[in-house]
Amino acid sequence: MENLNLDFSQTVHIDTEQQPWLPSPMQGVERKPLARQQQESGHATSIVRYLPGARFKRHLHPMGEEILVLSGTFSDEHGNYGPGSYIRNPPGSAHAPFSEQGCTLFVKLNQFDKQDSASVRIDTQTTLWQPGQGGLQVMPLHDYAGQHTALVKWPAGERFLSHKHFGGEEILVLSGCFEDEYGSYNAMSWLRSPHLSQHQPFVQQDTIIFVKVGHLPVS
């Protein structure tokens, strides 16, 4: 597989529902690559699916692993994580993941700062929302050195101010339909906007997004 979507100066939009599942090196584990380096141990952002009973060999995360469980139950030797679980495994961590009943995940590999050593486990289905700007509700998941990760709940009809993204912005639409002046993005759409990109987002229906800001190259 060649390098994919690694020019971080470009805006990328992928409707992942229209992407085919591709095999991984481990039987029973499939993926939809969104951005990745050619080598298996490099930078990668993907939708990953474990078929029931699939297991991955114990492996190391040289530069960390970030997971949002989209459906099913994801497991490793440390615990079981149902839908909505947010997991951060820091640089140098290792585990042997599996899924007895199957699961679908949003996964980011080898993209952490070396000093970002926090191990995070959050059940977003039981965590309280916090008030955000306007009618938005926010659920912070992780912050480090100007990088922020959160869930954001948009009520129908909400409009946000036009704004720039210092360090870029990355969004996975979890439900509803996220919109801006450039297009409409249905559930399971993935968007990545570069440093200093600008837009004015809005929604016409209740919508929830997973969003990261400040983590992309600034030069």
Helix content: under 10%
Output mean pLDDT: 95
The percentage of residues in β strands lies in over 45%
Number of helices, where a helix is a run of at least 4 consecutive DSSP H or I residues: 0
Any low-confidence stretches, pLDDT <50, length ≥5? none
The geometry reads as: globular
Spatial order of the strands forming the largest sheet:
1-20-17-23-15-14-13
Q: How many strands, what sense, and barrel or not for the largest sheet?
A: 7 strands, antiparallel
Distance between the termini: 26 Å
N to C succession of SSEs: EEEEEEEEEEEEEEEEEEEEEEE
Helix-strand makeup class: mainly beta
**Alpha carbon gyration radius:** 17 Å
Strand runs, count? 23
Produce the secondary structure layout.
Elements lengths: L11 E4 L6 E2 L5 E8 L7 E7 L8 E3 L3 E8 L1 E3 L2 E3 L3 E5 L3 E3 L7 E7 L10 E4 L6 E2 L5 E8 L2 E8 L8 E3 L3 E7 L1 E4 L2 E4 L2 E5 L3 E3 L2 E2 L3 E7 L6
Antiparallel strand pairs: 1-20, 2-3, 3-4, 4-11, 5-10, 6-9, 6-11, 7-8, 9-12, 13-14, 14-15, 15-23, 16-21, 17-20, 17-23, 18-19, 18-22
